[in-house]
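Fold it.
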Amino acid sequence: MSDTASDTNARLDEIVRSKDVVLFMKGTELFPQCGFSARAIAILNHLNVPFETVDVLQDPEIRQGIKAYSDWPTIPQLYVKGEFVGGSDIMMEMYEAGELAKLFQDKQVA
């Protein structure tokens, strides 16, 4: 692993552990830059959980690094208490099945 990749991984570790819920997305919470990111924001807002967003469009290293970090090829990506949950489709499936709300409850995310 190159120094850049390990630096990026260290940054990503710090980001995903800094808040209970972190969404890596394209754009910002108020101005999502893709439909999948907009859907992820809508789900989190509907569940009324506090969350932090990271705009991958602002940082090419984070944009590429997060895909390797999670071994997941697409963005958005949701992390809860430092653990990768999934992308927009997985979030939607979990939300519809009531599993996402339960995950937040189990992880004690207010």
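Residues 3-18 form the longest helix (16 residues).
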